[in-house]
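Posted in: Structural Biology > Protein-Ligand Complexes

Title: Requesting predicted complex, calcium ion in pocket

I'd be grateful if someone could produce the 3D structure tokens for the following input. Sequence and ligand are given below.
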Amino acid sequence: MSKRSCIFAIALIAGVMAISIGGRSQATVVVAGTLVTLDGDNDGFLDDATIDRVTFDVTAGAFITFDILADEAIGFDLNGDNELTRLNTFIRLFVGNAPGHPIAPDGNIGFDDNGALGSDGSISTFDSILNFGFQFAGTYFLTIEDRVSGFAEAIAGIDLDHTGLWASAGPGFATDHADWQLTLTPQEGEISNVFVTAHSAIPEPTTIALFALGLLGLGAARRRRHHHRT
Ligand SMILES: [Ca+2]
Ligand SMILES: [Ca+2]
Ligand SMILES: [Ca+2]
Ligand SMILES: [Ca+2]
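-- Reply #1 --
Done. Output follows.
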């Protein structure tokens, strides 16, 4: 390669890099939480488990990687809290409020159970990972549960027939709770307003979840009315 074409090639590569870096306009976000066992259906048994929710906003065209770090299966304290917990995550992606999206609010648009380890230090393929391209800007949410609960349970935030891994994790592992960490990496576009809704401190999750859903419905009705007026 001549000196001139070599310089041209370097300039071309630099230009491409600048474009791809320019597309990554938002930094990675890391959030964490803890699922707990409880008696959610009041049958006298602590055989139910909470399901956490991570809510966020994205720009149109955003492409996000959702990478879970949870299962401390082989004795590594991955999150550095001096205890070992096991969670066999299942994640679901829902539409929150994304105007123009063909799927209704609370509609499920993606999920993952076990997959690649990702780049977050996972040591177990029980950890979930999901890559998703968002055509419509708006608010979405991801639910994090142990194994697979019902669709409605993911929305309500509690698994009423929990058969999860952590309860039988074995000596040295916690049996009443399990920790998770989620890394949200925008490969394209932006992600913002990331927050976790934990159901662990709610005394009667089902009632309050129904109440919250009612409020959401009321809010949606108000928005619809307001929309008609304008
Ligand atoms: Ca129960
Ligand atoms: Ca991972
Ligand atoms: Ca730990
Ligand atoms: Ca899993």
